[in-house]
Q: What sequence folds into this?
């Protein structure tokens, strides 16, 4: 065996300059790694969701969670986070007495992470994280709902919430407000801001009696959007 071979190879590696081809290989490798992370870790669960309705994961800041929970102060009962990410808001809602506290999240990695956080905090039996498409969740009867989603989907979500939620429901939007609703209270500043909406107050403003969307025409709209992507 030639004992000098590894040293020689190392010396050659050290003295060799990166040519254009080397740079291209590194760039391609980095691109592939990022793509693999997107497909394997961030993207799973979203294959059946139309592109226009896909919302990336950005965790709420601590200040944002505080603003959201301040707006729910004085309320009780069930709590839902639509697109619950790593579960931080659901966990905080549980700590503040909401029960059941439920998060709906499509990304299986985030669902696992949320369950792990709840387990680590000793609350895994009291909170629940479900891997479900928020557009397919029946929200009838939910009283306390929070969302932190992209502005592009909030208009369609308004319709779903108006169709399904009871009058005494409170909806809190983090970071981005609903485009057509009037909040009755706003908390925080900049990216941490949150908006509170009473469902009863929204109904007469946005839809006339015959315009209130049904579940089936809402589904049609989602399908139409799917077709247009
Ligand atoms: C901006 S993050 C907010 C995460 C969390 N609510 C928070 O405040 O930290 C939006 C989350 O919604 C999830 N999401 C997007 N579309 C979804 C869908 N159709 N059904 C369920 N979850 C969805 C994403 O995976 C992402 O985790």
A:
């Amino acid at each position: 065996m030639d004992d000098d071979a590894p040293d020689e190879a190392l010396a050659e590696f050290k003295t060799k300059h990166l040519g254009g081809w080397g740079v291209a290989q590194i760039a391609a490798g980095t691109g592939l790694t990022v793509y693999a992370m997107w497909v394997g870790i961030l993207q799973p669960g979203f294959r059946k969701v139309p592109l226009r309705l896909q919302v990336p994961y950005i965790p709420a800041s601590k200040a944002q969670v505080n603003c959201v929970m301040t707006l729910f102060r004085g309320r009780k009962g069930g709590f839902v986070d639509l697109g619950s990410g790593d579960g931080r808001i659901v966990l905080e809602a549980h700590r503040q007495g909401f029960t059941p506290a439920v998060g709906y999240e499509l990304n299986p990695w985030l669902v696992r992470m949320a369950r792990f956080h709840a387990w680590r905090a000793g609350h895994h039996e009291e909170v629940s994280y479900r891997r479900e498409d928020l557009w397919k969740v029946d929200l009838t009867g939910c009283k306390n709902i929070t969302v932190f989603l992209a502005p592009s989907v909030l208009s369609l979500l308004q319709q779903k919430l108006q169709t399904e939620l009871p009058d005494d429901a409170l909806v809190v939007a983090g970071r981005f407000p609903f485009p057509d609703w009037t909040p009755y209270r706003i908390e925080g500043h900049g990216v941490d801001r949150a908006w509170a909406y009473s469902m009863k107050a929204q109904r007469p403003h946005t839809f006339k009696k015959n315009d209130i969307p049904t579940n089936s025409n809402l589904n049609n709209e989602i399908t139409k959007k799917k077709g247009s992507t």
